[in-house]
Amino acid sequence: MTTLLNSSIKTFFFVTYNEIFLNIYGGETFDQNRLYFALGYQFSSIGQVQVGYLFQMLQRETLGRLQFAFVYNLDFRKN
Question: CB–CB of 66/36 below 8 Å?
Fold first, then answer.
């Protein structure tokens, strides 16, 4: 889920998601869970940066990671 903090192109936004992975081929059913929170800034219609924290719970361990992301959306459509 992405929430814009205002309606302009150059804006800050908040991102959160939760992914649950299940094993359907036998063994333990639960595989992993990823929970992510980030604050981002969209500086143009095709580019943004994000800084967030990923909490990952695996079958036998729990990890936490600080993530920095640069997202650039390329448009390959012909005009």
Answer: no
Q: Where are the beta strands (DSSP E) in 1-79?
A: 2-4, 11-22, 30-42, 47-58, 62-72
Q: How many residues does the chain have?
A: 79
Model pTM above 0.85:
no
8 A C-beta contact, residue 34 and residue 22: no
- Amino acid sitting at position 17: Y
Burial of residue 28 (CB within 10 Å: 0-12, 13-18, 19+) is exposed
pLDDT tens digits, one per residue of 1-48: 656 556 667 889 999 999 999 988 888 888 899 999 999 999 888 899
Whether 79 has a pLDDT exceeding 70, the answer reads no
